[in-house]
Structure formats: structure tokens, C-alpha cells
User: Fold these one by one.
Assistant:
Number 1:
Amino acid sequence: SLLESNRALQRRLTHAATAFSAHAFLHERCADELVSRLDLLRIAPETILDAGAATGALAQRLAQRYPGAQVTAAELNQALAATMPEVGALKRLLGRTRAVQRLAAALDALPLGDGSVDLVASNLALPRFAEPDDVLAEVARVLKPGGAFSFVTLGPDTLRELREAWGDVDDGVHVATFTDMHDIGDALGRAGFAEPVLDVDTLALTYNDVGALWRDLSALGARNCLPGRQRGLTGRTRFGDMCDRLMRDGTLRLSVELVYAQCWGTAGPHKSGEVAIRPDAIGMRRRDG
């Protein structure tokens, strides 16, 4: 069930917490990119929420970028949150008079008041959820009218090669599928966000062996915890066959599709439960790299 899957994910994140930062090169890159994109918004937020902060990489960058703002790092998994720098040490490190606050909270049930945050940012937290609607609705609720929401999530081409290699050897559920950029745009519209702009950045990751990939996935809590996954051990023969298909000329190449989005909070709730956005008002562009 989905509830069991969520519990399995939390167990994996808890187990991975101590090694997470050492393997989170993708999170670090995305955190840098998210902060650089905020320069385009020309905002001066007083209250900032890092939604799904993990070990706090984005929260620290936001605190540096906006030294006068109150930054709150929301993370449900307490093992991950415990690896964030201590509040006092972070104040000294950043030369801030205000500490980065930690908040134990699920993104689809934030213990924050309506319209209480100027800027919400989220770094690769949406892939933890099978559907984005509940999270986006909650972000829309806590965001001030005219506040900004900036996030990055994973697109459907992520781990495509791994998904195809498993598909060649069995019909089991091994690799998650991620939400398409256009579907994310639709979900932002349903949540009532204004002027969404989305674009895609496709990365190619290279490994010398499957073991290195598995160590990264394990350290990020990203091993298979999907509903419908096989409960027993995968046979050595099938796993070996999958690895043979994944490795090409001694090299393993994996795609990662990153979907970046920026949008604005609206002036108030839509009483009808619907919001109209022209198709040409959703800006989208694709960048491969």
C-alpha cells in the first residue's frame, strides 16, 4: 500500500542519514542552481521555508543569500534533520543574527499559518510523493499572496536506463516513475499558483561500476520502496543480467531529468476550486547538458 511505501521510505532515509551528505552531489548542485535562479525574482523575503530540507543544504544557502530573513528548514525525517549543522554553529558560520530554525513537519501537513511565508523553496523533495497535489496545495496555503515558490524535482527520464535494464529481465516494479513537466504545470494551476515558469535540465551521470551507483542510491535512501515491489531477494542471476544490460563498454551512464519551476502565490483562494491559466501562460523550456 501507499502507506507502507511511505513508511519504507522513512526507514530508508533514517538508515541513510549519516551518509547522505557525502553522496548528495545532485542535491548540492540543485541547491546552488535554485539560489542562483532566485536572483531573477528580485524579492526581499522576510520569512523563508525550505520545504523538505533533508540535511539543510538549501536552507544554508538561503540563509546566506538573505541574511536578514528568518529561514525555517522543514524536514519530517528526524534522522536527516539531526545531521543539519547545530543552530548556534550555523549562526557563527554565516555571521547571522537570526538562526535557521528546524521544523519537524510533513510537506503535506505543515504546522504553519495561512499566508505566513514570503518564499518557499524545495530541493528534490517532491519525488518523495507519488502525487504532488497535496504538497502543492499546502505550499499554496502557507505562501503569502504574491509570495514566491521555487523548486526542483525529478522528471520521467530520470534513471531511464536503469528502468529499461530491469524491464529486459523481469516485469517487476524496481524504479520509480516521476511526474512530467507538463503535469507539474497542471498541478501548479490546480493549486492556484500564478505565472508558473518551468524548464528542464538533463544531466548524464557516469559510473565505472554498478556498485558505485548502488552506494549512491543507498546513501540517499533511494533504493526501491515502491508499492508492488518484490518483497523477497532478487535472484543473483536476474540482478547480474540487469547489470550486464546496464553497463555499456565498461561504463554505466544514467540520465537525470531535473524540472525547475518558479511561480507566485495568488491573492486568495479560488472559491470555485478551479483556476484558469492560458496554455501559453505556462513558460517552459528544455535544456540538455
Number 2:
Amino acid sequence: MINKKALIFGAGAIGRGFLAPLLQDCNYQISFVDNDKKIIKKLKKRSSYKVAITEKKNYKFQEINIQNVFHIDEIFDIKKYDIVFCCVGPNQCNKIAHMFKNAKTVISCENDIFSVDNLKKISGNKNVFFGIPDVITSNTASKKLLKIDDLMTVTEKGILILQKGNYKLPKKISQVSKSFLEIHWRAKLFIHNAPHAILAYLGFLKGYKYIHEAMNDKKIKKVIEGAMNEITKGIVNSGYVPKDFAQNYKKKEIKRFSNNLLFDPILRVAREPLRKLGKENRIVLAVRVAQWNNKFPKNTTIGIKAALNFFHKSDPESVYLQKLRKKMEDSKVLEKICGIEQSDPLNNFCLNQDLKAVIKK
């Protein structure tokens, strides 16, 4: 019996693709808030859409029933919802944080553990908790699947791991202690997020459209597996994550990246390169932690050089990055964006990596 209501901010890969089917399975009515007028218009015309969930060799299809859809500028009563999820992107979540003031419970699935503190501060709502969608999900699908439903998304079954709080959810959604949540977050940030981004930048430079296509390229795969080994050893040596947990996480990620059922768009993973190259974000932090192996991480630093070369006219951060590179040397760009000072030997090491050998067709 459906008697609970969930409101999801962000009708993209995580919101529409992963959270909606999971919450519907837990007997929640699903509503969305988004700023994409095209998506909103399509969703408002319909009462449902389909999600393709990957199995070993094929898909299981699930029909998602929609209760309400709101544009971000519309008026709606957030107090009516039992739980609210925020998955609009780390750069955007602070802009809408004030909307969460009167929410009963807010779960931040923003791929940034610090988003919780920011949302609490801006909204004045103390009932904000961190969630980790441990999943690869796409905001689109193959041409064949889109013929079935042009709003189709593709997702793994995945798991959602939440910080314990003063709220109740079904047992199938894991609610864990803050200490365990932090371990899982470190594993995801370093072993998933960093190599995932590096894979996207290398794949983009070589002309691929989807993550699995890039991972099936022998040269790129060698770099990604090398980076994952460097990073995994580093987080174990630094005491950040227990060895068994880290090793198992690494094995899982290699399989995920190669899954040709997922159709994970490279442009989605590569977007916002300034954020992903930030000194407190995935790639640079992964390089830092990999240095606990007492040598410079060759494969992970190739990722920094690849990210520097990312340009797509639809991505404002990439446009700004390339304008910056025209004004100053790359060594200064690394210092400004990545916090890797020109006097740091790591700066020169990053720029000396042979990127051309990897992306040469």
C-alpha cells in the first residue's frame, strides 16, 4: 500500500534513473523538481516512464509512476513530502538550499560529503543527511531503448547507503553509522569517482561516446586499471580504507566500467572539469593519496593532463578552462585550478605524461 511521498530534486541520472525505481519499490509515491523545461514538459504530459535495469546479459524494465512534476520556479508545499532527495549537482545544490527550510528530512545525494553542512547552513534545516548512491546510472539509453520510451534511463540495481538519522526507511535501504559511511565515501570518491572521470576524459579525447566504449579500448583500459591500482594502494597505505574493503571495491568498479548495457554518456561524466580538477576534488586528491606509495602515480596523473584538454562548447567550465590555457602556461593553470604549485615536482610530472600515446588512434 502506497502511503508515503518522496520528492526528488533533479530528474536526471540519479533521480529519474536510480532513486525513483528504488523508492517506488519501497512503496513511495514519486514526484520530481527540475529546471529542464523539456524534461518537465514531457514528464507532465505523462503519468509514467520506463527504466531499464541491467541484469547479467539483458535488461529488466520497470514502469515508474509519477505523482507530480514541478519546475524549480513553481510553487509547491515541501512539507507534504515524507522525504526529500537532492541530486541536482554540487554546483547547483547551494542555489536551491533555501527551498529545503521546511522539509521533514533531506537526503543529499550530491557526490560531495560536505554538501550536507552547506545545505544545513543555508536552509537552516538540521535534518539533512548524506547519501551515497553506489551505482552507475545513465540519464539516457541506447537508440533501441529510446524507441520504446524517449524518457528511458538505464541503471544498475545498485545500492543506496544513508547516514543514520531521525527518520525511517525500509530495511532494503542501508542506514549506517557516520564512521562506516565515511569509509564507503572514501572508497567511492577515490576508487570510483576519480578513475570514472579519468576514463571519461581519455574517452572523450579519443572520440568515444559512452564509458564502456572507452573502457574497451586497450590503451585506455591499461591506464584506468593502473590508476585504480595506484589509488587503491594509496588509500590502504594511508589508513583511509581497510584493505579488504578497498580491494573488493576496486574489482567491482572495473566490471562496472566495462558494462556495455549501461550506455553511460562520456559528456555527463566529464562535465564541469574545473570542479573535478579542484584541489579538494576527486582527481587531484586521488593523485595525492596515491603518493603514499612512495612514488609519483603515473597513470593517475595522465588523468590530470587529459582533463586539462577537455573542451566541449556546451560545458561552460571547459570553455573557461581552454581560455585560461591560452592566457597562461599549463604549469600556472595547474597551480591556479588544482593547487599543485609550480615549484612542486608533481606539477612538472603531470605535464610530462605522454597523453598522445594513449589517445593516438
